[in-house]
Amino acid sequence: MSEALKPPATEPAELIWHDGIPESSRFGDVYFNRDDGLSETRYVFIEPNKLRERFESVPNYGHFVVGETGFGSGLSFLATWAEWDTLTANHAHSVLHFVSFERYPLTQDALKRALSRWPELGPFTEQLVDQYPPLMKGVHRLVFNGGRVRLTLFFGELKDGLNQLPFCADAWFLDGFAPEHNPDMWTDEAIQAVRNHSRPGTTFSTFTAVGRVRRALEAAGFEITKHPGFSRKREMIAGTLAYEDSTSSPATPLPEPVAIIGAGIAGTLLARNLADRGIPVLLIDKAACAGAAASGNAQGALYAKLGIEYNAQAELAATALSFSQRYYRPWEDDFWHPTGLLQLATTANEAARQRKFCERNQYPDDFLTPVCQAQASELAGIDISVAGLWFPKSGWLEPAKACKKLSEHPLITTQFNFEVQCIERLETGWSLQSAHHFSLKVSKLVIACGHQTAEIAPVTGKLRLKPIRGQVTYLPEESVNPPATVICGSRYLNPVSQGQATTGATFDIRNDNPKVTEEGHQENLDELLRMLPDLPVTQAPAVETLQGRVAFRCTTHDYQPVAGELRTESGDKVEGAYLFTGLGSKGLVWGPLLAEYLADTLTGQPVCLPSHLARRVDTLRLYPRREL
Predict the structure, then answer these.
(1) Per-residue pLDDT for 288 more than 90?
(2) Would you give the DSSP letter of residue 128?
(3) Whole-number mean pLDDT of the chain?
(4) Residues 77, 128: contact at Cβ < 8 Å?
(5) Using an 8 Å Cβ cutoff, are 258 and 129 in contact?
(6) Backbone phi and psi for residue 612, each to the nearest 5 degrees, phi listed first
(7) 397 vs 296, 324, 335, 506, 588, CA distance in Å?
(8) What is the dihedral of CA 599, 605, 608, 614, to 10 degrees?
(9) Please, what are the domains in the chain?
(10) How many alpha carbons fall within 13 Å on the CB side of residue 532?
């Protein structure tokens, strides 16, 4: 990375265009064949890997993994997706995973321009361009076709991505610029890393037949065959990782149902993710409906406060925020309202923090950008007296409505009014006992019931989870001129919905009062006016007349979320049991990405988190003296 470029930004490709063909000025090579790039892709990658035949044999509920060493223009991904879409149309729950790496990604505009040459790929191109992530280093998961196609895109050095992402490919596209132009991508170390992400029978193909590349692949255990090259190229190579024995791969079993305790935002996001993959879900909650507890507020901001230093904590938050913005898009104008969000520097300390943040970080403008006081006022549509940070793709949600919508799926069965008090291990699964002596028997179990997780988790050690009381206040529309966008500072203020705007929430660590209090309303109003001293209050409401809501958010000792296999205090996995909790006040942000990660884990598919971020959400952290 250039010294002038600060994290998490990644350097975009430097392009020269010749008759609509992009060429890398850095490597002096074209991204695809000048005559017919799509035919070249099919010839070099799809045919030698026998993808058409192999896609047809993927069973329903199965998955196939393609690895690629250079994403480039995305043409190989789109060509593969098009084949998958045609050949597996009758398998609604089979999944194509495409894992690709790119050191110098194209910008969104350049990607769109490069791919415009192939109108036959238009529907796929449009979706890729629409979901294309901000140019931030690290891992980005993109989900297409209702979950039937999942693209895991790593922006950064190939060796870093291969070291950080745990997956096993069925086929490899060894792409990228020619070895003489880009030798770092074709080192023996890179080839060995490709081998480490392969299984016996994994295939590869590549446009090059350079001797040192061929020898490195042979040394790694691949059996090589030469083929005539495409167009004017004389030769190319393909091959297969040799079988060490004759053991065949086991057949893909039918999916086991998964029970989820907790129908808040975590539980319903996970339930929907699994159901979209064809996994039957039993969604259990002690309330009479989904979204009745901490996720039951009328409004919630999609907001993450990013750290001054770009460390693993900031990376996880930024990755989750970017993913959630893409995830909620299908529900725009339903329960998702992408109005944008302003994070204001309302105190001297926060102003100093934001200055340091901007000095030490460089985020893409389509993710966040600093704005002055005048710009903030224009964006909000009200007078703002301070500068801040603008998140153009954020906004607000209706959490209770979201939980209900997410849980409406043919493969999700709900069991409401069932309070789980005891979980017992059975020989082949789990028994869930209710307060009224009813029981449910399940094979796989995810506990996603907030701070109550610690009370019922089937382990002996004490889990470090705690409730934090939060009271929100509903302001009548006629009492305040609300903003056009979400505003965050010491409190948040949302645009109007159904005649009222939500502000809050209090952060009461040692208060267990479940009832709304006038003191809580007063605190919210005082903080709101400190945050927005110029907010025009047309009819100041009397505190005793205000409505609101109290919820208890669950957080961990380190205020980081938890998602993964349940473990004992000694570190052993508890077979068939998982946790998804500790999302605190950022459940709307954390939830989509961690539901994706946990669903990956439950189904044995390539996971969307690199290893260093997966450690941050590991359940073992919840035990004292077991930091990871």
Answers:
(1) yes
(2) H
(3) 94
(4) yes
(5) no
(6) -70, -25
(7) 11, 11, 5, 19, 8
(8) 80
(9) 15-241 (3.40.50.150), 258-293+400-463+558-622 (3.50.50.60), 338-392+466-556 (3.30.9.10)
(10) 28
pLDDT in tens, 8-45: 999 999 999 998 899 999 999 999 988 899 999 999 99
Max CA separation in the chain (angstroms): 83
Burial (CB count within 10 angstroms: exposed 0-12, middle 13-18, buried 19+), residue 568: middle
Nearest C-alpha neighbor of 505 from the set 489, 518, 486, 524: 524
The confidence band for 177, taking pLDDT boundaries of 50, 70 and 90, is: confident
Convert the pLDDT of each residue in 492-502 to its tens digit.
Answer: 999 999 999 99
Helix (H) or strand (E) holding 53: helix 51-56
Categorize the per-residue pLDDT at 345 as very low, low, confident or very high, splitting at 50, 70 and 90. Answer: very high
Angle between helices 265-276 and 399-406 in degrees, nearest 10: 30
Q: Is the pLDDT of residue 483 over 70?
A: yes
Q: Percent of the chain beyond pLDDT 90?
A: 87
pLDDT over 70 percentage in the chain: 97
Q: What is the pLDDT confidence band of residue 173, given thresholds at 50, 70 and 90?
A: very high
Residue 247 has pLDDT above 50, yes or no: no
Q: CB burial class (10 A; 0-12, 13-18, 19+) of residue 142?
A: buried
The arithmetic mean of pLDDT across residues 95-123, rounded, is 97
**Rounded Cα gap, residues 420 and 77, in angstroms:** 45
Which tokens sit at 472? Answer: 């929100």
Model confidence pLDDT, tens digit, residues 509-549 = 999 999 999 999 999 999 999 999 888 665 667 889 999 99
* DSSP code at position 497: B
Name the band, by pLDDT with cuts 50, 70 and 90, for residue 252. Answer: low
Closest CA to 316 of 628, 2, 617, 4: 617
Q: Any residues with CB less than 8 A from the CB of 556 and at least 6 apart, and which?
A: 464, 465, 466, 562, 582, 584, 621, 622
Burial (CB < 10 A; 0-12, 13-18, 19+), residue 433, is middle
Query: Does residue 510 contact residue 354 with C-beta atoms inside 8 Å?
Result: no
Mean pLDDT across 172-183: 91
Q: Environment class of residue 109 by beta-carbon count within 10 Å: exposed (0-12), middle (13-18) or buried (19+)? A: exposed
> Is there a contact between 40 and 173 (Cβ–Cβ < 8 Å)?
no
- Residue 208 pLDDT greater than 50, yes or no: yes
Four-point Cα dihedral 487, 491, 494, 496, nearest 10: -130
Half-sphere exposure of 125 (CA within 13 A, CB side): 18
Around Cβ 248, how many Cβ atoms within 10 Å? 8
Tokens 């869930």, located at residue: 432
Measured between alpha carbons, how far is residue 481 from residues 317, 417, 533, 596 in Å?
A: 31, 40, 13, 38
Q: Tokens for 524? A: 């919210």
Using omega within 30 degrees of 0 as the cis cutoff, is the peptide bond preceding 435 cis? no
Give residues with Cβ within 8 angstroms of 201, minimum separation 6.
170, 240, 241, 243, 249
pLDDT of residue 254: 76
- Is 543 exposed, middle or buried (CB count within 10 Å of its CB: 0-12, 13-18, 19+)? middle
Assess whether pLDDT exceeds 50 at residue 67. yes
